[in-house]
Amino acid sequence: MAPIPFVREIDVAYGAVVQVSPLIRRVIARNPGPFTYTGTGVYIIGQGEVAVIDPGPDLDAHFEALKAALAGERVTHVFVTHSHLDHSPLAHPLARWAGCEVHGSAGIAMETPSDVRMEAGDDLRFRPDAPIRDGARYEGPGWTIEAIETPGHTSNHVCYALLEENALFSGDHVMGWSTTVISPPDGDMDDYLASLEKVRAREFSTLWPTHGPPVTEPAPFLDAYIAHRLDREAQILAQLDAGQTKITQMVPVMYAAVDSRLHPAACHSVLAHMARLVKRGVVDSDTGAASLEAAYRRAG
Ligand SMILES: [Zn+2]
Fold first, then answer.
1. How much distance in Å is there from the Cα of 87 to the middle of ligand 1?
2. Does the first or last residue of the chain, that is N or C, have fewer Cβ atoms within 10 Å of its Cβ?
């Protein structure tokens, strides 16, 4: 597999507000974990009249830290990348406190099956006040945010570009410390790869994921991130060519080096690839649809 040049070095001072670029400050919530790495990084854009991206989990200490960080300023926009519990729950409380609107995708994500909890969890109640359109721009003094729809991790995922710094707040779409979980039915590998290409084409200077440090060389990182998925797809096709028909047979071979307790999650990742291969007509399923139980073979 092509190695991804992961970046994992990050100074974490929970609750403190840290200036991380001329226009960007960050506050990290104390919710570290297997899916959130060192916790949710909340980004504050601008000075005086500011935007907040992904207010994060609904934790009292975190809300207090955000209010302290924003004291004396006016929050004009709250943006949400997607409806997961480590990103969106504090959006409405913060917007109510600030007297502004919550912007995000109007798309409602499907619930993750409970047997494959590979994420911090769905925030099924999340609805924006103001639905975003792809390409919509929002302005404050000295800053311009552009919404970029990036479905894949969830069907309603949106990244936000900060045009003045040619930077992208990449949410969970691109993470420096890890690959992203794509879990059907809401997660869609075909959409995901298209969204990676969409971000790649913009040639951003810096990516600011919600979890972990920034990616300061996005082009080679995204190339490796995309190649990693295509390598996985090639492995699946090799398994089919070797006569394996079931996802549950392929995973112990493909993930032989991985702790078997992680194999159920790996099955869902392979399912995400299989759904893309079926959708593209490369692979046939005996049931006509991609599922964990189906038998697969090369099409044609
Ligand atoms: Zn997420």
1. 7
2. C
